[in-house]
Structures are given as C-alpha cells and as structure tokens.
Amino acid sequence: MPNFWMISDRAVKNGAPSGELGPLTYWTAETGPLDDLSKWNQASRDDFKKALVEAADQFPQVSHADNEEQSHVTFFVHGYNNSWQDAARLYEKLCADLFAGEESMGLCISYDWPSMGSVVDYLPDREHARECANDLTDVLSELFDWLIGKQAAAAQNPALACKAKVSLISHSMGNYLLQKAMANAWKRKNQPMLVSLINQLIMVAADVDNDLFQPDSSDGQDGNAVAYLSYRITALYSGRDAVLGASAGLKHFGARRLGRSGLAISPPTGKDNVWQVDCSGFFPESVTGMAIHSAYFDTEATVSLMGGILTGIDRGVLETLGKTNGNAWPPAA
C-alpha cells in the first residue's frame, strides 16, 4: 500500500510541477522527501482509485460504539503562496504527525493546486483556486457516488460497510477552492440534504468570507452546500494572522476573513454543525503575525486539536479537556 497520495492540478514544466494549471494527474509515493518529484510515481485515474479502495479496505472494522476509533481517508488542500515544494513538505509533515505509526488516523491525500508560491500573486492564486474547483468537484462527486454505493451495499450486507470516514483539512485559500467545489458538487447531486460527504471538515486559517454560513450572505448558497455535505465543520482562526489581514485589504469586498475574525455569527443561523476555535493562545509571542498563518501545522497543541476533531470527539468534551484553550499567549505580565 502506498504511504503517500497526491491528486494534482499543476502542469509539469521542465520536469517539475509549476504554478500553472494543467490536467488532473494522480501520484503515489512510498518514501520521502516528497518535495522531490522523482519519489512520486504517476498512476492512471483508475489505478489510483483501485489502490485507494484497496488501502481503505485494509482498515480495521469497528463497531458503531467504537466509531471514534474508525480510520480516516483525509484530503488535504493547501493554501495560497505555496509552491509545489512548499505544499509537498507541509503534506509530508501532516502525514508524519497524524497519519503514521501505531497512532495513525488512516491515510491522507494531498489535493495539490497551482498556487503561484509568491505573496504578490494573491489575485492570480485566487483565480487559479476558482478554476481548479471544477476538477475537485469531479473528485468529490465520484467520491459521493462511491459512498452512496457503499451505503446501499451495507444495507444488504453489513460486512460490506465502508471501513473509513472521509474527512478534509483545508488551509488558507484552499478553503475558497473547497467552497466552490462543494457548492458545485451539491448542485450536481441535486442538493442532497440527508447524506454527508465529509465527516469532519477542518477549515484552518480560512481565506473565505466570515459570513459564509449565513443564508443571507453573498456566498450563502455556497455555505449551505458546505454545511449540508459535512457532518461537522470546525473553523480554526486567529486575530493575530497578519496574512489574512492583508487578504481582507486586497479583496475590498467588505466581508472579514473567517480565519482571522472567526464566524460572523456563532453558531451561524440554522447551522448547528458549524463551530470555531480561537487559536491565538496556542502561538507564543515569538511567532510573528505572518508566521501564524501556517503555525497551526507547526504547533503541537493545534496538531493535537486537529487529531481530536478528526476522531470525532464532541466539541464540549474537547473544551472540557482543555484542548481548545492555549496558554502560550498573551505573555504573563
């Protein structure tokens, strides 16, 4: 079984993934470093899907009472200002932290899109994210059909039930790509309201409007789609995030950033499956405003929180256990 998985929208130029949009390609790898393309083996769509199904079928079968022990197939969507090498290194670290060893939560798939890897390319990155949404829609739609088929088979024979939960971690502008892709998939599947495609969606430092889940917002229909297709949505944010402060200034659309300001209304109207965690206290004073944007993946406490969320631990329990409270900042007087 491959250890690493990647679906990529990047065009390969001169033997390396570029910042340009290309055809959707599928890759697997056994070992790192993953920022070396020679470590990856390109696969056909059908071979990738077959290998993924076989890998998920090797997960242990657990009872309903032990659902928190169920393994995950988790998609990771990187954010703005990530070259392919940046995205590959971040994905490799996430796999090492949550998807390796005896405590592995299952397997993780990188959905790689052509961010330009430059701060000055914010608007081109945003356009690339929108363009890539159609390809991610195809992936999510096919996954939706497969899950529906597994549910139908399990109704006839419980032994055929899916052994994995499907979850997703999206970072920064990757959340904008996801927002558009899930809205497209929801429409394509005739707006289902009784089937969850994503078990746990973690929106990390999300570069989307903070009123996304409000029905009267400009993107309210997108928010409906994301909420209806997800069992639980957790937004991790920090008011100390200087990158999203700049993003808000570049947009000029009036709405604040979810990853910087948190939800406009918490919980959003009619969306009790959406909640948030202010992560500002997890990052010490030595972590500057710009660095906070990606510090979620470098800080042990926030990585542990992501693990608890993926497991499906109730939000009240996470709060009671202190998992949602950081004490690294502000500094003591």
Description:
With 333 residues, this protein is an alpha/beta fold. The chain has one domain (4-320): Alpha/Beta hydrolase fold, catalytic domain (Rossmann fold, 3-Layer(aba) Sandwich), CATH 3.40.50. 38% of the residues lie in helices and 21% in strands. The chain has a nine-stranded mixed β-sheet, sandwiched between helices. Strand 6, helix 4 (174-188) and strand 7 (198-204) form a beta-alpha-beta unit. The longest helix is centred in the middle third of the chain and has 35 residues, at 122-156. The model has no long low-confidence stretch (mean pLDDT 89).
Features:
single chain; 333 residues; alpha/beta; Rossmann fold; 9-stranded mixed β-sheet
Question: What can be said about the biggest beta sheet?
Answer: 9 strands, mixed
Our Rg estimate from Cα atoms comes to: 19 Å
Coarse structural class:
alpha/beta
Helix percent reads 25-40%
Name the CATH superfamily classification.
Answer: Alpha/Beta hydrolase fold, catalytic domain
Number of beta-strand segments = 9
Report the uncertain regions.
none
Write the layout of secondary structure elements.
Elements: E1 4-13, E2 16-29, E3 40-43, H1 45-57, E4 71-77, H2 84-98, E5 106-112, H3 122-156, E6 164-171, H4 174-188, E7 198-204, H5 220-228, E8 230-237, H6 242-251, H7 258-261, E9 274-278, H8 289-295, H9 300-311, H10 315-320
Parallel strand pairs: 1-5, 4-5, 4-6, 6-7, 7-8, 8-9
Antiparallel strand pairs: 1-2, 2-3
Helix pairs in contact: 3-4, 4-5
